[in-house]
Amino acid sequence: MLHAAVRPAFSVIGFAAARFGLGFGEAGNFPAAIKTTAEWFPKKDRAFATGLFNAATSIGAIAAPFVVGWVVHENGKNWQIPFLITGVLSTIWVYLWFKMYKKPQVHPKVSKDELVYIQSDSEIENEDKLPWKSVLGKRQTWAFGLAKVTDAVWWFYLFWGAKFLAETFDVNIKNIALPFFVIYILADGGSILGGYLSGALMRKGWTINKARKITLLICAFIILPVSLVAITESKWVAIFLIGLGAADHQAWSANIFTLVSDVFPRKATASVVGIGGMIGALAGIIEDKALGSVLDTAGNSGYFWAFLIAGSCYLIILGIVHLLMPKMTPLNDNLEKITA
Predict the structure, then answer these.
(1) Contact at 8 Å (CB) between 255 and 195?
(2) Residue (of 26, 81, 101, 16) closest to 57 by Cα position
(3) Among 9-23, 283-297, 321-335, which is the least confidently predicted range?
(4) What are the residues whose beta carbons fall under 8 Å from the beta carbon of 212, sequence distance 6 or more?
(5) Tens-digit pLDDT profile for residues 126-151
(6) Which of 16, 159, 291, 317 is the most exposed place for a label (fewest CB within 10 A)?
């Protein structure tokens, strides 16, 4: 009896520890990815490159249920195998990354012309490390951190979207595949198109400040109809609006991430992205707790306020970001404004 009682507790603790490890490892992805993008792409291409790799997260979310279902089968006895597969693939990827990745200026396959293009709109930087305290006091850091509060909206779509569809339109585990396929496909498209748009505007001669912020403003307006999700009576209208919100968030994210490398030197990019990611995660935790409490007391009517906030917060946040960072003046190696 004692063994039977202890084993579930041990499995829960073990699962929690493994999940903590997964989250800890995942946390390094975006800071490293954004820094790598800053090292390998000129500013006019960075949002598009960010949009492409950011879209891959949605592709993974689409593929995972089908792949896991195929591996596990109906009897569910092989449920451990997907965890082992992801662990092995991650290990291989890390090995290949350390073996193959080099900065463009030392990469043997990068030609002189390619290097000139990569560095065409960036200042040459020294390799001295910057302490974290050098970025904590900058308004630009907190402008990015504030923009990352919108991560809570993304987590809302992912964690509460299925529950809302189930309770409102009876979309259950058996028929949720198509709705979520639509939502994630729209998210992929938004990530790529949003990243492309600001770069296209820059190639037309727009300044970085104008191109990024006009793109973000377009995103903030397009997402407004998400506020109507809770009052629509059509399942597919609700699904489309949630998909629109997911697409717009990914377009927003592609450009928000790029703001960091637009303003900060490359050696500070990962630190600032990490700070913003922490703020976004905290916002998601607070949102999850708050919405749960609201739904407990107000019932499903609480979704009205959740979708209203999800649809309107981007416009408000963009206004504050603009006040904190009106001109997006680049900072030099010493994190002082470039006056030239």
Answers:
(1) yes
(2) 26
(3) 9-23
(4) 47, 198, 255, 258, 259, 262, 328
(5) 566 667 778 888 999 999 999 999 99
(6) 16
